[in-house]
């Protein structure tokens, strides 16, 4: 399931030949993530380690990942949308056992600043650690 989703997402991202158009596409995707989610924008969900403000809430239901996220910047909300589409309702064990080389394969690593890449990598690491910690409690 996860690899199929990832392949589909990459195909969609790489339908654009140049990085500028791909960047613009991510900004467009930000419209699918509300920037004003009061129940999510609480101190306990604020992710430390991003240049932008990011709120991230991870959970599980029936052994699958639930994920809610938003940011104060459009670009990061677009990337969060892609991450949520990739991981939403995927079994925790599948995520923990098959990490996706997200930044390397989607082309963001060359488009974004080092600080943004570091923040996104941290979010992905947080997701993987959550899945690894919780997969046995299902």
From TrEMBL:
Q: Would you say which domain of life the source belongs to?
A: Bacteria
Record domain Fe-S metabolism associated: where: 11-128
Q: Which Gene3D superfamilies match?
A: 3.90.1010.10
InterPro entries per UniProt? Fe-S_metab-assoc_dom
Matching PANTHER family:
SUFE-LIKE PROTEIN 2, CHLOROPLASTIC, SULFUR ACCEPTOR PROTEIN CSDE
Similarity section: Belongs to the SufE family.
The protein's name: Fe-S metabolism associated domain-containing protein
State the species of origin: Agathobacter ruminis
Give the source lineage, highest ranks first.
Bacteria, Bacillati, Bacillota, Clostridia, Lachnospirales
